[in-house]
Every structure is written in C-alpha cells, then in structure tokens.
Amino acid sequence: MKWINRQFGEFEYDPSHVLNFPAGMIGFEDLHRYILINDEDSKPFLWLVSLEDGEIAFPLIIPSLIAEQYEIAGIPETDTTILTVVALRDNIEESTVNLRSPVLIDNKTQMGKQIVLENDRYPFQHPLFVVAETAEKG
Amino acid sequence: MLILSRKLDESIMIGDDVVIKVVAVHEGSVKLGIEAPKTVRILRTELYEETEKSNVQAAAVPKSTAVEAARRLGKSAPAPGVSTAVQPKEKGRS
C-alpha cells in the first residue's frame, strides 16, 4: 500500500503492519490507523505516522533510552511496546519527552493506545538531553 | 452546559453505556465512580489537556529537527523490541 506523509513523502507499507488506535491519540481522536516507521536518518526516534491524515507523524522514543528503569505498573512487558512522544523544539536543547503519557502497542493484536499515568512520578515534559547526559554519567 | 443536581449514590447516564455515580462528597471534593466501555477514554481534564498540548506540538515538528536531535543524542542503537516497525521505501531517495 502507498501513502504520502508530509515528513516522509510517498512510501510503501505492508497492510499487516498497520496499528489500530480505537480511541486515537489524545487530541487526535479521529485518527485510528497508524504505521510505525523506523527511520534511519533520525534514529533512535521512531515515527507514528497517521494513515488517515498526511500531515500527522509523532516522533517517539523508547523511554528506557531517556529514563532508566522506566516502568508502568500492570503492563505485560513482553507483549507490549512502550513508547513516549517527543516534543522537539527549534532550540533542540529545550526538547522534551512526555513520560507521563506513554503510547502502548499490543504486539499481538497491533492495537495501540495512549494513556496518562495516574502517578505523577513521570513528568509531561522530561528534558530530552539533560537526563540523557546524566544517565550516561551514571 | 447541562447542569444536573445529584445526591450521594445517585448517578447519571451518558448515552446508554456510560454511568457516572456520586460515590462520596467530602470537604468540597466529590468522588465519582464511572462505568464505561473499555474503548472510552476517561481522564482528568487537566491531564488530557496537558497531553494534547504536548501531542500537538510533537506532531508539528519537521523531520529535519529530529535528525539534528538524533545526531546530538548520539544513540544510534536500533530500537529494541519494536517488532512492528517498518522501513519506508521512499521514492526519490536511495
């Protein structure tokens, strides 16, 4: 299948890789079908690309790269891919990661959802860089 | 906005499968019990708004900014455990 996205231009995807978000992403409730793109140029970011609105692609990162021992209670780890949305800024040092509102993808059913953690242990705006450096020192 | 008065243990229905019940009232705070289908997202408004704001901002950023951020992050290890990720076949690039 072919799709055109503002960020990636025209690309082909395998329909078996389509992810379904029945409730959509928060603030984007009308968009339900996504594909996850592992883009070589912007590793380690991944892109959750809407297959219904060519303007929409969310950059994501695996939270364990940013916050060591990132854990969500009650999530079956082996069957769930946990990703977090990255809010990049023009001034890149100010970029943040939303650790409070992770995106969960069920690897078996390919169903996805974004949740907001009740616990305020993780912030909505966690610095992308400061903490990465701290983690490397540790 | 529709405004309804409810007492302790009374409830309201939204549609035919969402029930909101007043479970406790204490010192200016109301505890609500909510029954709804699993697909219905239930969130405190401020948490929804905070996440929406961050999502809207994230979705607006050009890929070039991500490429620059990735370079500075310097973590080129492949994303582990993401079995559904696909590599796009982009036209006009090799």
SSE sequence of chain B, one letter per element: EEEHH
Cα(first) to Cα(last) distance of chain A is 45 Å
Mean pLDDT of chain A: 89
Give the name of the CATH superfamily of chain A.
Answer: BH3618-like
Q: Which descriptor suits the 3D outline of chain B?
A: elongated
Question: How many whole angstroms does the radius of gyration of chain A measure?
Answer: 15 Å
- β-strand number of chain B: 3
Query: What value does the average pLDDT of chain B take?
Result: 84
> Helical amount among residues of chain B, as a percent range?
25-40%
Strand order of the largest sheet of chain B: 1-2-3
Shape of chain A: globular
CATH architecture of chain A: Roll
Category by helix and strand content of chain A: mainly beta
Summarize this structure briefly.
Chain A has 138 residues and is mostly beta strands.
Molecular structure report:
The complex is a heterodimer of chains A (138) and B (94). By secondary structure, chain A is mainly beta. Chain A has a single domain (2-137), classed as BH3618-like (Roll), CATH 2.30.290. Chain A contains one helix and ten strands, in the order ββββββββββα. Chain A has one helix at 130-137; strands at 2-5, 9-12, 19-20, 33-37, 46-50, 57-61, 80-87, 96-106, 112-114, 126-127. In chain A, the strands form two sheets. In chain A, strands 3, 4, 5, 6, 7, 8, 9 and 10 form an eight-stranded antiparallel beta sheet that branches. In chain A, a hairpin with an 8-residue loop joins strand 4 and strand 5. Chain A is globular, with a radius of gyration of 15 Å. Chain B is α+β, with helices and mostly antiparallel strands. Chain B has a domain at 11-68. In chain B, 28% of the residues lie in helices and 21% in strands. Chain B is built from two helices and three strands, in the order βββαα. Chain B has helices at residues 45-59, 63-73, and strands spanning 11-14, 18-26, 29-35. In chain B, strands 1-2-3 form a three-stranded antiparallel beta sheet, with no helix packed on it. Chain B is elongated and about 60 Å long. The N and C termini of chain B lie far apart (56 Å). Mean pLDDT of chain B is 84; it is low at 88-94. The chains are: A mainly beta (138), B alpha+beta (94). At the A-B interface, strand 2, strand 4, strand 6, strand 7 and strand 8 of A face helix 1 and helix 2 of B.
